[in-house]
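F.,

This is the one I mentioned.
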């Protein structure tokens, strides 16, 4: 992967990589490549995976210094990420 000068690495642990692999292989691929059908996954697992994706995406977009924003203002995208993260957190707390 290409890394620009002065950019910040975003570490991903083995456990986090396992979650991302599960999300890609068993969730995304299931919906992307097959006819929609009844399919279930534990809400806590999906919530955890979504939180991880939001956190990593936020770090890559806003802290790595690898992204130059053009069509969408950075502040607008940050607000969207914060709102979605808060909504997910609220949903997770209500599930407990």
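My design for it:
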């Amino acid at each position: 992967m290409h890394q620009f000068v002065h950019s910040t690495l975003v570490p991903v642990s083995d456990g986090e990589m396992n979650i991302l692999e599960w999300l890609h292989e068993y969730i995304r691929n299931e919906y992307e490549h097959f006819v929609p059908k009844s399919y279930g996954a534990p809400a806590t697992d999906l919530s955890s995976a979504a939180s991880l994706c939001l956190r990593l995406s936020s770090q890559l977009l806003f802290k790595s210094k690898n992204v130059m924003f053009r069509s969408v203002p950075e502040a607008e995208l940050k607000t969207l990420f914060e709102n979605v993260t808060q909504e997910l957190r609220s949903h997770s707390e209500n599930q407990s």
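The mean pLDDT is 84.

Talk soon.
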